[in-house]
């Protein structure tokens, strides 16, 4: 299928490189054939948007540890903890550690 699609695109005077999961590539190719833009891939939401380090910071902050305690446990600076908390709050669209504690509870995310 892939070579056939490339032949069709080349015949139309287009040069396209497509890579990714086979299902996503098939959706893209189908959309091109139909003359419609391919749907944007789904963005992760909530807790899934956090990096592993942010998730670790969020979990510890959710357990009411101070920034200094979090820094000590994760072997990072308190400035880095502050940075991660800002990113966490932005990504989760929250503005308090109380709300973070609620979200950090098991099965809350």
TrEMBL record:
SUPFAM superfamilies with a match to the protein in the record: C-terminal effector domain of the bipartite response regulators
Keywords: DNA-binding, Transcription, Transcription regulation
UniProt entry tagged with the keyword Transcription regulation: yes
Pfam families: GerE
PROSITE patterns linked to this entry: HTH_LUXR_2
Residue stretches making up the HTH luxR-type domain: 43-108
Keyword Cytoplasm belongs to the record: no
Protein name according to UniProt: HTH luxR-type domain-containing protein
